[in-house]
Amino acid sequence: MSGAPPHVAVVTIAHGRHDHLAGQHRSLARGSALPDTYLVVAMDDPGIVEEHVGALAREVVHLPRARGGALPLASARNLGVRTALDRGADVVVLLDVDCLAGERLVAAYAEVVTARPGWIWSGPVTYLPPPPAEGYPEDPADLAAWDDPHPARPRPEPGELVHAGDPDLFWSLSFAVDAPTWRHLGGFCEDYVGYGGEDTDLGRTAVALGIGLGWVGGARAFHQHHPVSSPPVEHLDDILRNGRVFHERWGEWPMTGWLEEFERRGLVRRLNGHWVRESTTDDPKESIA
């Protein structure tokens, strides 16, 4: 990148979660640095429209559901980054729709990606409790009082960088990359459709290509609360389908903790080295059709 300030794009993919998206937009609009482009890929959701909050405009591109009705998460992220690069982005930040941006998230990502290109940089994410009656703070500076990053990932302090090469720690909740590195990476594998597997696949692809994985303490995000199921039973078919894709690419199954819990609940079983639904068929291919 040249000495000119980088063009920074924030890309979010969404289906529903309109209130969370609005909160994210407000947090980005009040950050210490605004992105040059804020782009939302709306997956089968015509209710997501272009809007302004303060000086920050939200652009929207639309993407239909994948064949079979699953949400095309990997394809949507790739479309968002591709569109941002077409807009001239030098630095692309991918931020989950549930995440509020910390005050310096955009600035910190822009700084580290510009200074140390060739890496994928992630920021710590705090999972917020349910909001109080008045809602979460609208000023991102006030989110610092809630700061308590997820313990299963590196937790550098603001101003610190951590080099963490374990690809299984990568997640797409919040990360940033420079344009040439993204092109070298090739984006998310679009064989994954629906929920599960694509993040770990991207992390492993990065490491295989010699792309570093790092964590930047200044790029803090705050995940807005929503009900979840553990394990995510509603995504069982996606997990089985995407798990088999991962096995074909990497020789092992991901998400084994969830699969073992599904097994304990009698929902899946192991068959010939694979996981299949506990159903009437003994053909593992049938479980991922």
From TrEMBL:
Transmembrane segments: none annotated. It comes from the Bacteria. Keywords: Glycosyltransferase, Transferase. Residues 132-160 are annotated as: Disordered. Pathway: Cell wall biogenesis; cell wall polysaccharide biosynthesis. Coiled coil: none annotated. Gene3D superfamilies: Spore Coat Polysaccharide Biosynthesis Protein SpsA, Chain A. This is Glycosyl transferase family A. It comes from Nocardioides flavus. The lineage of its organism: Bacteria, Bacillati, Actinomycetota, Actinomycetes, Propionibacteriales.
